Amino acid sequence: MTKDYADTDALELLKRLKTEVFDDSNAEVGFVMGRPVGEIDAWLTGEEEIDEDAEMKIRGIAQERLGEE
Questions:
Q1: Which domain holds residue 45?
Q2: Structural domain count, the chain
Q3: Which residues contact 56 (CB under 8 A, 6 or more apart)?
Q4: 58 close to 10: Cβ distance less than 8 angstroms
Q5: Is pLDDT of 10 > 90?
């Protein structure tokens, strides 16, 4: 059974992915997301909001990488 991430905040998921899956590396998150590290930094510090496309990608990655079996 896979956990439903639809109701989880995208920033919270991004932080979990960074910590639990990508060795706390903004560079690795950026690579997988296809986004520059500066943009990842801005999301995590609250300087920029996560856009809708990125939010969908974060949720998909979370389901794949953090999902419960």
A1: 10-66
A2: 1
A3: none
A4: yes
A5: yes
pTM value?
Answer: 0.85
Contacting residues for 44 by C-beta, under 8 A, at least 6 apart: 11, 14, 15, 18, 26
For 17-56, write each residue's pLDDT tens digit. Answer: 999 999 999 999 999 999 999 999 999 999 999 999 999 9
Q: What is the pLDDT of residue 3?
A: 59
Q: Is residue 29 part of a domain?
A: yes
For residue 21 the two structure tokens come to 């899956």
**For the chain, how many residues are written?**
69
Decide: residue 64, CB within 10 A, 0-12 exposed, 13-18 middle, 19+ buried. Answer: exposed
